[in-house]
Amino acid sequence: MIATAPTGLSTQLTFKRDAGGAPDLGYFRQRYPETVANFGTLPRREEWLRRVWEADARWREQSETIGGAHRAEEVVVRGAPPFESEVEAEFDVIYAGGVTGLLHAGVLACSYGRRVLVFDAQEVGRTRRDWNISEEELRELERAGLFTPEEVEGAVVRRFRRGGFVKFHDAASRVKAGPLWVSGVLDAAIDADRLLQLAAGKLRARGPQQQGCAMIDGLRFVRAYVEPARVTIETEDARGRRRLFAARLFVDASGKDSAVARQLGGGGAPTHVCPTVGTLARGFAGGEEPDAVDFDAAEILVSTEDAADHRQLVWGGFAGRAGRGDYTTSLSFYEALSPSAASARTRGASGV
Q1: pLDDT-based confidence at residue 337 (cuts at 50, 70, 90)
Q2: Which residues, listed in sequence order, are joined to residue 233 by a DSSP beta bridge?
Q3: Do strands 156-159 and 297-302 pair parallel, antiparallel, or not at all (unpaired)?
């Protein structure tokens, strides 16, 4: 990982915190009224605005460096927790992150009889989006012993009978190419929340009265104390209260830019980012014509302009439930954060 200097947007995107350390949403509304207005029709608007605020604040805190220095909080500590720290409960495995971590925890609990704890800073087992998956991965969910074939099939909302394709913009290129069709990669769309809630139900059935498993919403990972025989996980709830749990194994499933990943990576910032926005819409005409949507094909990656200045905009499109005509469209923005890329853009803008 390479540390990067702060970008020119840093001042514009710095949000204030109130005295208690929570995001100052009043300041957010004043500074970004259009963002607040566009979130106005969403259920639980305040929650989503807070999550946008926290995501940006976390990114600024973790990715930007001063004078090229690396910054990484020590969250994996060798040694025992502070004296007189009270551990609430002990497990075989603890997972930070309740999405894919929940699936792995469910397999260990249901197929191997392990006592597991899954906690998440938001809500365990919620993604609020569909997943695209291969047929081989679908079958693996059955082979792992977590779901029955009927449960897996019940979560499938669409199969892409024509497969998926990749198409890069080539208007300025002497070499023209049609779409590259890919099979065995994204064969179906599944209701991810349905699968996760099934896994949560199976884990909940192995709660304290049986196997001793648990799931906890609204807990943020703070620190892991690693000793030869066990690891103690320190967490914090929404009110700032600290809670400790112990296990033989700790799994960080909270993302590639988590505090643990930062420390293991030496504190350096990522060299690239890929923010993505998307929407779920209905009412499209179906078909293979240019102005229609092919509901039997997955648009894996489609670019509509050339790559320039180390950046690329890429579209994706995936059909959902057939009865409702759901179609998800996303736009990903690939951006290099290295100093060389930034200086190249500066030279181009000044005509050098």
Answers
A1: low
A2: 224, 245
A3: unpaired
- 142 belongs to a structural domain: no
Domain of residue 210, CATH code: 3.50.50.60
Give the E-state strand segments of 48-104 in sequence order.
76-78, 87-96
| Rounded CA separation 170/192 (Å) | 35
Whether residue 280 contacts residue 145, with contact meaning beta carbons closer than 8 Å, is answered with no
Distance, CA of 342 to CA of 346 (rounded, Å): 6
Report the alpha-carbon distance of residue 138 to residue 159 in Å, rounded: 12
What are phi and psi for residue 290, nearest 5 degrees? -60, -30
The DSSP call for residue 73 is -
Nearest to 298 by CA among 276, 285, 279, 315: 315
Q: What gap in Å lies between CA 28 and CA 110, rounded to an integer?
A: 44
Sole residue written with tokens 């993505």: 276
Alpha carbon of 155 to those of 149, 158, 187, 292, 318: distances in Å?
A: 10, 9, 14, 26, 16
Q: What is the pLDDT of residues 28-39, one digit of tens each?
A: 778 778 888 888
Do 232 and 81 form a contact (C-beta atoms < 8 A)?
yes
3-class DSSP assignment, residue 120: strand
Q: What is the DSSP letter of 308?
A: B
Q: Is residue 313 part of a domain?
A: yes
Q: Residue-wise over 6-38: b if at least 16 C-beta within 10 A, else e?
A: eeeeeeeeebeeeeeeebebeebeeebeeebee
pLDDT at 57: 72
140 lies in some domain? no
Residue that the structure tokens 């000793």 belong to: 227
Render pLDDT for 166-194 as a digit per residue (tens, 0 to 9): 999 888 888 898 999 998 988 999 999 99
